[in-house]
């Protein structure tokens, strides 16, 4: 799903901005799913996995689809390629933006896990499925 990227910078600046958005989404979703998972006795892995999937769908999927499409679609004419590229914000920085979004989701979820004390809760071998 694409969100409005017209205000974002190009290159590494746009990648960092996209990564920060993804980090915020990962953090927020992990905190929401932590509350839900606590009531339903979810283990940390389940909370992390669902947070990663949802944050990725919300923030990375549009750029990831564009990256896949431009690598595998059969764009037979330069005019069609130009038309498709014109719809993408900073097509030259697409791969960098996807990488930053992926790292942002991971960072956001990790920060959420640290905030809720996940790094302390499993020391005693307390594992719930």
Describe the overall structure.
The chain is mainly α and 129 residues long. The chain has one domain. Helix content is 71%, strand content 0%. It contains six helices and no strands. Helix 2 runs antiparallel to helix 5. The two termini are 31 Å apart.
Please report which band the strand proportion falls in: under 5%, 5-15%, 15-25%, 25-35%, 35-45% or over 45%. Answer: under 5%
Radius of gyration: 18 Å
Shape: elongated
How much helicity do the residues have? over 70%
The number of distinct helices, counting runs of at least 4 residues, comes to 6
How does the major sheet shape up? none
- In N-to-C order, the SSE pattern is HHHHHH
Q: Mean of the pLDDT scores?
A: 88
Number of strands: 0
Count of discrete structural domains: 1
* Structural class by helix and strand composition: mainly alpha
Briefly, what is this?
With 129 residues, this protein is mainly α. Helix content is 71%, strand content 0%.
What labels would you give this structure?
mainly alpha, 71% helix, elongated
How are the SSEs ordered, and which strands pair?
Elements: H1 11-39, H2 44-59, H3 61-72, H4 78-86, H5 94-115, H6 118-121
């Amino acid at each position: 799903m694409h969100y409005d990227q017209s205000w974002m910078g190009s290159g590494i600046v746009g990648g960092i901005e996209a990564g920060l958005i993804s980090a915020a989404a990962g953090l927020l979703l992990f905190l929401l799913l932590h509350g839900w998972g606590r009531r339903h006795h979810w283990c940390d892995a389940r909370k992390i996995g669902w947070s990663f999937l949802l944050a990725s769908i919300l923030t990375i999927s549009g750029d990831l689809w564009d990256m896949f499409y431009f690598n595998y679609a059969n764009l037979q004419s330069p005019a069609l390629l130009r038309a498709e590229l014109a719809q993408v914000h900073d097509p030259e920085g697409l791969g960098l933006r996807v990488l930053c979004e992926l790292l942002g989701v991971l960072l956001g979820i990790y920060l959420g896990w640290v905030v809720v004390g996940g790094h302390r809760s499993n020391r005693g071998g307390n594992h719930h499925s």
